[in-house]
């Protein structure tokens, strides 16, 4: 396959590589993956990569004689053996495409600028930062490696760690999953959104309201699985496909109201899928609902362009054009702060 690394390489070096990768927020959500294929989505998704919320990863590699996978993980300065199974599974999966991984002892040192497992996509930024680090090593082994290949393969590897991570490789609007109307879109790696976007969508604020910073009780990987026997799954995939078509025209025309209504619809559909899966569960907390209703009331009386989206958790992302930043932020701190543990002033990259 295209991403195999077959060449003979010299492994005479030890070293350190460091990469940073941003989290992302999906506008059209990835929810559900093929049963018998590895990390292949059942619908296409699109996200904005986010400023201020990111992972920094340092990957230290030391050559060794025995060929096997050897990794230690440190998170915010502390060794985390609990992260090892996921990381080892990831290394094992990708070692098929990066055979050199078996020639080194690895130490991963990583930190996030936000709480992990709280609904801000920490697996997205951490898996993509790690994939970028691995590609930095591959670049040292293959001097002819082209930039385009570097990012495509990084996205391909990141996807094998966590689906949404493949979109975090690029800034801006990023698409993953084949969609008939989006040139270059495919199920294996993400690609930057290829069409021209109205200027209103090039500078968007995303204020993230952390309503719950405890690790999630139900992980998204479990939620994806539940789509296999979900009574409404088929309709959801059709709806996501249609919503992508709608979004393409909205992004071109620049209608922020339609954009906002579409992303709120997507967010609530995602949560509706979770609430109607078997077993069912609920990610929203009472304060999530209070925030949503307060935003709706404020929007109605102020006519401001402020809309929410939700990830796989209780936290709320508020999206609005940068032109409205001063007045909206003031309102957020005065009317929503009491519902939150923390507010992160992020923006779409
Ligand atoms: C709700 O990418 O976390 O954030 O592939 O199992 O790691 P895995 O799932 P993950 O799912 C993210 C789902 C979502 C929507 C999205 O980001 O598109």
Describe the structure in your own words.
There is one protein chain. The protein is an alpha+beta fold and 349 residues long. The longest helix is centred in the C-terminal third of the chain and has 21 residues, at 233-253. The protein has helices at residues 84-94, 122-141, 147-161, 220-226, 233-253, 256-275, 286-302, 325-335, and strands at residues 15-28, 45-63, 70-75, 78-79, 104-112, 173-176, 191-192, 204-210, 307-310, 316-321, 342-347. The radius of gyration is 20 Å and the shape is globular. The protein has 2 domains: 14-192, Ribosomal Protein S5, domain 2, CATH 3.30.230; 206-347, Alpha-Beta Plaits. It has 8 helices and 11 strands. The strands form 2 sheets. Strands 1, 2, 3, 4, 5, 6 and 7 form a 7-stranded mixed β-sheet that branches. A 4-stranded antiparallel β-sheet has the order 9-10-8-11. The structure holds ligand DP6. Ligand DP6 binds at residues 26, 29-31, 39, 45, 121, 123, 162-164, 220-221, 224, 270, 311-312.
What does this entry show, briefly?
This protein is of the alpha+beta class and 349 residues long. The protein is 35% helix and 23% strand. Ligand DP6 binds at residues 26, 29-31, 39, 45, 121, 123, 162-164, 220-221, 224, 270, 311-312.
Assembly level:
single chain
The CATH architecture name of the largest domain reads 2-Layer Sandwich
Main beta sheet: 7 strands, mixed
CATH-defined fold name of the largest domain? Ribosomal Protein S5, domain 2
Rg over alpha carbons: 20 Å
Task: Give the DSSP E fraction (strand runs of 2 or more residues).
Answer: 15-25%
- Give the overall shape, derived from the CA principal axes: globular
Number of strands: 11
Q: Secondary-structure element order, as H and E?
A: EEEEHEHHEEEHHHHEEHE
Query: What is the share of helical residues?
Result: 25-40%
Cα end-to-end separation: 32 Å
Mean pLDDT, to the nearest integer, reads: 93
Structural class: alpha+beta
- By CATH reckoning, the class of the largest domain would read Alpha Beta
Number of helices: 8
The count of domains is: 2
Which stretches are poorly predicted, pLDDT < 50 over at least 5 residues? Answer: none
**Ligand inventory:** ligand DP6
